[in-house]
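Posting this for the archive.
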Amino acid sequence: MAVVRRDQRSGSRQGARPQSGKKGTIVLNQVVDEIRALNSSIALISQKIKHLVRNEKILGRNLIVLNKKVKSFSDTKVVSGSVPDGVEEQLRAFQRQMDENSRKIDDAISTIEALKNDFVTSEELKELRYVIDSINPLEFVTIDQAKDLIDEKISKSKAKTVKK
């Protein structure tokens, strides 16, 4: 039992705790655990997105270097006048590879943007936590409790009808 003291100046109660059932604290603990799990999932996804962005930057720099090399190589082709057939085929293969890499980078960028839109931010998670705390799920009745109350009312009304 909680000890209740009255402050002599203000008359307010100190040390009084509201009575809550074990089911309510269990539900609250489950909600807190789920929020922690969501938070760790968000952190993991954020870390993966950072890796994707870093890899995208590296690939972009590599493409720029390769483009410069291909351009310098094609400039030497114009100067020399004739290039062996095998080299031209390799240039075409490099060009196809670069086009494919550019397309993959564009796909990765769109995937990252979609992921940014699909997942909640930490601010949204804090807002959700505030809403849950405001609602206070401990004040709600569970389904089992509602069924028990209904059964109790029905049995009382039947008992009253039998007495009459």
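Residues 20-137 form one domain. Confidence is low (pLDDT under 50) at residues 1-18.
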